Amino acid sequence: MRLSSTLLIAAAFSLGAVPAWADVSSNPRSAPKGTYALSKAHSLVTFCIKHFGISDYCGWFPKISGTLEFNGSQPGNSRVDVVIDLSAVETRSDELDGRLRDELFEVTKFGTATFKSTGIKVTGDAQGDIVGDLTLHGVTRPVILKARFNGGLPSPFGAGHLVGFSADATIKLADFGFTGVAWKVFVGDEVTLRIETEFLHE
Question: Using an 8 Å Cβ cutoff, are 78 and 34 in contact?
Fold first, then answer.
């Protein structure tokens, strides 16, 4: 019988096991080279935009998928492909969620956004610029993700190796054809993206 991750965690604490993060390595070279699958349960894209110029209003995309070809010894040879389900957009307003889906993203025509890396430049210890093509609302533009390798470890819940990343980027609505929405006059043009994700190598 396969135990759920919650039961495994409870069992580990009850047995006084060493916390899993004790095995985390911040060295990218410690992670196996090869193909990793994005962990949908541990990955999220958030977005924030100025509201009336006085605050940041944020939402998130909880449904993303993708793959990572990882080479910790030669990060420039790594690449990542990600797909974001725009119809699953969430904010603190059900009404706004519907308007974003129908009026802004037009999900019946453009149901997903994709990011495909075209190059990686190392900028520091476990940090780099991931250059790639973002396709959104039928428009493809180059975008740079400021990424950080957060660490990796053997999966505590079975076979495989986990790696985690954080990344930030800024895009402009006008660059992706978001110009005709009436309520757009209340928000800024720049959108800040924040990505938190884990990938599993099996």
Answer: no
3-7, 79-83, 133-137: segment of lowest average pLDDT: 3-7
**Which element (helix H / strand E) includes 173?**
none
Q: Which of 157, 163, 186, 153 is nearest to 68 (CA)?
A: 163
Q: Do 8 and 42 touch, CB atoms closer than 8 A?
A: no
The distance of Cα 35 from the centroid of its chain, to the nearest Å, equals 17
- 30 exposed, middle or buried (CB, 10 Å; 0-12, 13-18, 19+)? middle
Q: What percent of the chain has pLDDT over 90?
A: 77
- Strands (E) across 24-160 are located at 34-38, 44-51, 55-61, 64-70, 79-85, 112-124, 127-136, 139-154
Q: d(Cα 89, Cα 96) in Å, to the nearest integer?
A: 10
Is the per-residue pLDDT at 135 higher than 50?
yes
The answer to whether 197 and 63 have CB atoms below 8 angstroms apart is no
